[in-house]
């Protein structure tokens, strides 16, 4: 399985946004508490990085909600469980320009569970923050080397490959040298590009 991912970008991130996201993800079947042990584990590993490395720290739900708003930290990671042996690594981090990136690593999931996760994440990111300024979905991880912060937030980084879908604000789409000349679909408040626009 490849290093697939789903990244979303948000302005004005708060503890309320973090709580809304975690509650919605849990309702959609992506749970921070392990289904057997009930443990919630913070994980410093970066989504898409090799499995070795990273530190894991057990926390309570209240502790997770406290740190997920990034009031005192620049980033956190947590395992979200799809089943007793299948998980998605979610990382919430500051990416600069008052923007918070929420990244989901999809590489460890079989195809059916990956699709379930993609649709659950897509359904929740817009509700998590009314200021979701864009997202990118790459189920196979073809574009892991792309500077997605630079594409979605700044509209300046070059795309060296195409994900399944990338959504950016209208002003970013119009000034980005590649996106400005590509066909897209309007899904307010974004322009959405890619081969899988209708499946996200």
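Q: What amino acid sequence fits the structure above?
A:
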């Amino acid at each position: 399985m490849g290093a697939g991912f789903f990244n979303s970008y948000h302005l004005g991130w708060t503890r309320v946004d973090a709580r809304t996201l975690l509650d919605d993800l849990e309702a959609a079947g992506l749970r921070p508490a392990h289904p057997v042990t009930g443990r919630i584990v913070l994980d410093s590993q970066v989504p898409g990085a090799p499995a070795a490395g990273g530190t894991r720290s057990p926390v309570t739900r209240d502790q997770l909600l406290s740190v997920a708003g990034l009031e005192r930290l620049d980033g956190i990671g947590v395992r979200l469980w799809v089943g007793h042996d299948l998980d998605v690594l979610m990382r919430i981090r500051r990416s600069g320009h008052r923007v918070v990136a929420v990244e989901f690593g999809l590489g460890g999931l079989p195809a059916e569970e990956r699709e379930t996760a993609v649709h659950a994440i897509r359904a929740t990111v817009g509700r998590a923050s009314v200021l979701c300024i864009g997202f990118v979905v790459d189920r196979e991880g073809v574009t892991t080397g792309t500077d997605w912060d630079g594409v979605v937030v700044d509209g300046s980084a070059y795309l060296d490959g195409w994900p399944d879908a990338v959504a950016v604000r209208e002003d970013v789409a119009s000034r980005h040298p590649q996106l400005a000349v590509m066909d897209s679909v309007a899904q307010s408040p974004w322009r959405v590009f890619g081969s899988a626009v209708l499946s996200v």
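Q: And what stands out in the fold?
A: The helical segments are 15-27, 61-68, 111-128, 148-154, 170-175.
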